[in-house]
Amino acid sequence: MTVTRADIEAAHARIAPHIRRTPVMNLNGAFGHPGFLSLKLEFLQHAGSFKTRGAFNTLLSKPVPEAGVAAASGGNHGAAVAYAASKLGVKARIFVPEISSPAKVAVIRSHGAEVVIGGARYADAQEACDRHIAESGALRIHPFAAESTITGQSTVGLEWEHDAPSLDTVLVAVGGGGLISGISSWWAGRVKVVGVEPEGSRALHAALQVGKPVDVEVDSVAADSLGARNTGDLVHAICSRTVDHVALVKDEAIREAQRILWRDYRIASEPGGAAALAALISGAYKPQATERVGVLLCGANVELAKLAELTH
Questions:
Q1: DSSP state of 32
Q2: Which pLDDT value is given to residue 121?
Q3: How far is CA 13 from CA 143, 158, 159, 213, in A?
C-alpha cells in the first residue's frame, strides 16, 4: 500500500473542521543543536495527542454500525477515539490494559466512552477488543495498522511543512508506527524521516533490521504509548521504503527530555511525547550544524504526580 500526497490532502480536508491546527515553535540554537529547529506542538491536539487525527479520519470515511466503534489502546488512541466518537454522536467501547496510565484512562472516561480493562498488556486488550468486535459488529479503529489511521496521522506532516518549510530531517517517536508511516509518506523522498524508539520497545527497529515484522519484548517508561510488540505488515511495508532509520534512546534520556521541556518551556509531556526530543539531547541522533531539524512533540497525557517527581 502507498499513501499518496493526494490521499493525505483529501484526509486533511475531511478532518480539518474537527481537529486543531497545532502550532510549531521554530528556534535557533536550542537543545544542543546550533542550527534551525522546529518543534511541532501536536500535544496540543484534542484529547492530548496526534491520535485524534486518525480517529476522525476513520469515523468520517467509513460507515459506522449501530454497535458503534471499538478500540484497544494503551491510552492515547482510546482517548482520541472516545473524543471523536463523542463529537460525532457515536458510542465507543475502549479496551485498555492494566498498565495504562490512570491519567489516560480518566481522559477516555471523560469523553463518555465505556472503558473495559482487557488484560495485563496491550496484546491482551487487543484480543478482548477483537472478541467484542466479532460478537457485536462494532467498527474497529486500529491504533496504527490501518490505512485510514495512517492517512489521518499523515496530516501532521502536511501542516508542519506549511509552517516550517525546507526541513532536512524530522524526528518522530514510534510505538506501533502509524504516525511515522503517515509522516514519512507525506515527505517520502524529500525529507529524511528518522524514527525514535526506546531501547526497551523497538518494534520498528527490529522489523527494519530483520526485514519483516517481528515480536519484541516491551519494557520502557514509555510503554503505555510506545509499547507495541509488533508493527504489522502494513507499517513495515511503508516504513521500509520511506524511513531513513530508527534511533534508540534510553529511558533516562526520555525522562531528561521531559524534565527539560518542563523546566525551560513549561511543557508537560508524557514519556512517549518526549521521546523524539530525547534522541536529539542524548546524541542518539546527531545532526549536522546546518541541518534544519524538526522534532515532533506528540503527547501530553502525563500523570502530573509523576512529572512532579521528575522535576523536583
A1: T
A2: 78
A3: 21, 11, 12, 32
Which of 312, 162, 236, 237 lies closest to 1 in space, CA to CA? 237
Q: Name residue, grid cell 519483516.
A: 212
What residues form DSSP beta bridges with 245? 194
Specify which residues 114 forms β-bridges with: 93
Percent of the chain beyond pLDDT 90? 82
Give the ranges where the chain is alpha helix by DSSP (H).
Answer: 5-15, 51-61, 76-88, 102-110, 122-136, 147-163, 178-186, 203-210, 232-242, 251-265, 271-282, 304-311
**C-alpha grid cell for residue 140?**
474497529
Question: Residue 290 burial by CB count (10 A; 0-12/13-18/19+): exposed, middle or buried?
Answer: exposed
Beta strand 24-30 pairing with 33-41 = antiparallel
Give the closest residue to 38 by CA, choosing from 22, 20, 54, 19. 22
CA dihedral 165, 33, 192, 52 (to 10 degrees): -70
Q: Find cell 523546566 and name the residue.
A: 263
- pLDDT, one tens digit per residue, over 40-96 is 999 999 999 999 999 999 999 999 999 999 999 878 899 999 999 999 999 999 999
Confidence of residue 107 (pLDDT cuts 50, 70, 90): confident
Q: Taking the CB of residue 24, how many other CB atoms lie within 10 A of it? A: 16
Confidence (pTM): 0.94
* CA–CA gap between residue 101 and residue 117 (Å, rounded): 12
C-alpha cell at 293: 531539524
